[in-house]
Automatic annotation (TrEMBL):
Source organism (scientific name): Vigna unguiculata
One GO location term (cellular component): nucleus
Keywords: DNA-binding, Nucleus, Repeat
The keyword DNA-binding is annotated on this UniProt entry: yes
PANTHER family: MYB FAMILY TRANSCRIPTION FACTOR, TRANSCRIPTION FACTOR MYB96
GO molecular function, one term: DNA binding
Name the record gives this protein: Myb proto-oncogene protein
Keyword Oxidoreductase assigned: no
First-listed, main subcellular location of the protein, grouped into a coarse class: nucleus
Length: 306
DNA sequence: AATGCCGCCAACCGCCGCGAG
DNA sequence: GCTCGCGGCGGTTGGCGGCAT
């Protein structure tokens, strides 16, 4: 007997989220902040599983998420981090704050996996074989090999990052891919789910105030929401500050303005900013001065193996 | 124009870790 | 120390859209 499902199957809606559901979820989180997902369906009236609500928020409604095509820069980072960390998408996503683990996972499975050259796949296979066959090595020998692997991955990541002269901007969400990538194709074809859609939805919502129950939407106006792409000095206030309902209105922008220091229910709470990696990569004697990061990488690489 | 195939991705499912009681 | 419940994570799938025939 496994654990019972997180919610009753009966009466739980499944499938794509509707704009109305998104609004209900966003307005609730704006008032109460992310978390306590168990209570979200009951408090919002959403006929959704708590997990579904959390997933919807973290993957699509959470501010700061960059939709659209992956840049070459991001692509290379993913490839090398995947080689380094394996299919630990949440860990990989923590290095790409604008991307969700689900996005990265999908992108890997649909693009990068097949894009990998056979030689790369061999390398990956060797690396994973090195992990899986670790039991055949004495621990000291295995550790040396792992260190070598990490050095190799580090060098590869360094190569990838050095292809670009400008550091990645994970603070500004509206940063467009530097390449000629087109906007996210799905966004135009369906309700998919970005906060841009929510904004448009809110616009219509606010234009027809009588057509809905204002209690479920909250007090914020669309005028605030349309500025989601407007750069502004990020407040130190995060989503958690919105638990104070008086602050919620004052800092309504913050909910839709990405703040790298704020983690709106992001996959990982222990983010290592990308710039930290780059510092680690580019700094001379990095292995000495950033022993903590190295040990973190080592720890992450080896977790689950012992 | 109609049909089938394929790729992509949003969402679900099940397991795991961790903290509270 | 044990149990339970919640949140997080990774694998998988179903549906939709685009493309080929």
């Amino acid at each position: 007997m496994g654990r019972p499902p997180c919610c009753e199957k009966i009466g739980v809606k499944k499938g794509p989220w509707t704009p109305e559901e998104d609004i209900m979820l966003v307005s609730y989180i704006q008032e109460h902040g992310p978390g306590n997902w168990r209570s979200v369906p009951t408090n919002t009236g959403l006929m959704r599983c708590s997990k579904s609500c959390r997933l919807r928020w973290t993957n699509y409604l959470r501010p700061g998420i960059k939709r659209g095509n992956f840049t070459e820069h991001e692509e290379k980072i993913i490839i090398h981090l995947q080689a380094l960390l394996g299919n630990r998408w949440a860990a990989i996503a923590s290095y790409l704050p604008e991307r969700t683990d689900n996005d990265i996972k999908n992108y890997w499975n649909t693009h990068l996996k097949k894009k990998m050259k056979p030689s790369d796949q061999n390398e990956e296979g060797m690396e994973q074989e090195g992990h899986s066959s670790s039991s055949s090595h004495p621990k000291g020998q295995w550790e040396r090999r792992l260190q070598t692997d990490i050095q190799t991955a580090k060098q590869a990541l360094c190569d990838a990052l050095s292809l670009h002269t400008t550091p990645p901007t994970h603070v500004v969400p509206e940063t467009k891919p530097s390449t000629s990538h087109q906007p996210y194709s799905h966004a135009s074809s369906s309700y998919a789910s970005s906060y841009e859609n929510i904004s448009r939805l809110m616009e219509n919502w606010m234009k027809t105030p009588n057509s809905h129950d204002t209690n479920s939407v909250g007090d914020y106006s669309f005028n605030n929401m349309v500025n989601i792409n407007t750069p502004r000095s990020s407040s130190s206030e995060g989503a958690h500050s919105t638990t104070n309902t008086t602050c919620a209105q004052d800092h309504v922008f913050d909910l839709f303005t990405f703040n790298s220091s704020t983690n709106y229910g992001a996959p990982s709470q222990t983010q290592a900013p990308l710039t930290m990696i780059e510092d680690w990569l580019f700094e001379d004697g990095a292995s000495q001065s950033h022993e903590d990061l190295m040990s973190m990488s080592l720890e992450e690489s080896t977790s689950g193996l012992f």
